Amino acid sequence: MIHLLTGENTFEIERRLAEIIAGFDGDVERVDGSELVSEQLPDLLAGVTLFSSKRLVVIKNASANKTVWTTLSDWLEKDIDNDLVFVEPKPDKRTKTYKLLEKHADVFVAKDLQFSDAVSWVGGEAKKRALELSSDTIRFFVDYVGVDQWRLSTELDKLALAGKPINKELIRELVEPTPQATSFELLDTAFAGRHDEVKQLLNTVARQEDPYMFFGLLAGQVYALALAKTAGTTSLDTVAKTAGIHPFVLKKVGNLARNLDLPDVKRIVAKLAELDVNLKSRPVEPWIQIQVFLLSLI
């Protein structure tokens, strides 16, 4: 049996690999394909061990090794004795070896989660961990953490260890938000006119982030806000694809855009441009300038 695990979602790739290994009754060998030489292939693909006639060979990143990857195509057209798992996050799909794997292997494609997928996945994982999370709390959690499954799983474990009812307040207390989530929360809080919360949140951010990099995140949020406001009848998915923005980000700021008039958005963009100039030219603490910008939004 030959397996091909491919895609950028390493969490799902590792999960599927663990399932394959757990279901295999025999010796398992892991190999770094990027360091292989062609002379090793006969033993890996057709050789057996002294202790077992069944052998599962896991080969990772062989496509990074052009000589071995090309040689593999000859082997894939023969009968192979051992079970094989090729782990290839970003293989060149134009190569003969990849096309043969598509033809002869059990192919598992691990795609990154979209927001709705992440919400469903967290709901399922919460049940496995016997955690009680409302649908609203789950959506807030994914908003706060992002859609990366490694982070989602780690932060769920952290919440489980707290031994307390899981709500938004506990998530804010224990979970590390993504910088993107923090930049959105700051804008959302600023638009709501909760100035004391803006100052408190910004003080927390200032202890962890570089002000100039964080300005870039704020600029990205405002850019997405302007796109959402001017989308008209064009779907946000289409706008996101054209602009090269994750649809999750655009839909999230779309809720803010609905509460703003176009002149408001133009004013915010102008203030952001002014902040950009000031950060580069004025000898004023950058975080103070960012705070002034946020407090001037409403």
Tag the structure with descriptive keywords.
9% strand; 60% helix; five-stranded parallel beta sheet; 298 residues; alpha/beta
Question: Would you kindly provide a written description of the structure presented here, covering whatever features stand out?
Answer:
The structure is a single chain. A five-stranded parallel β-sheet has the order 2-3-4-1-5, with helices on both faces. The mean pLDDT is 89. The protein is an alpha/beta fold and 298 residues long. The longest helix has 20 residues.
User: What is the radius of gyration computed over CA atoms, rounded to a whole number of angstroms?
Assistant: 25 Å
Secondary structure tally, helices: 15
Strand order of the largest sheet: 2-3-4-1-5
Shape: elongated
Give the helix proportion (percent range): 55-70%
Q: What is the mean predicted local confidence, pLDDT?
A: 89
Return residue spans where pLDDT drops below 50 for at least 5 consecutive residues.
Answer: none
Order of helices and strands: EHEHEHEHEHHHHHHHHHHH
Structural classification: alpha/beta
Beta-strand proportion:
5-15%
Major sheet characteristics: 5 strands, parallel
Distance between the termini: 62 Å
| Number of strand segments | 5
How would you summarize the topology of this molecule?
Blueprint: E1 2-6, H1 10-22, E2 27-32, H2 41-46, E3 55-60, H3 66-76, E4 83-88, H4 96-104, E5 106-109, H5 115-128, H6 135-145, H7 149-162, H8 168-174, H9 179-191, H10 195-206, H11 211-229, H12 236-243, H13 247-257, H14 262-281, H15 286-295
Parallel strand pairs: 1-4, 1-5, 2-3, 3-4
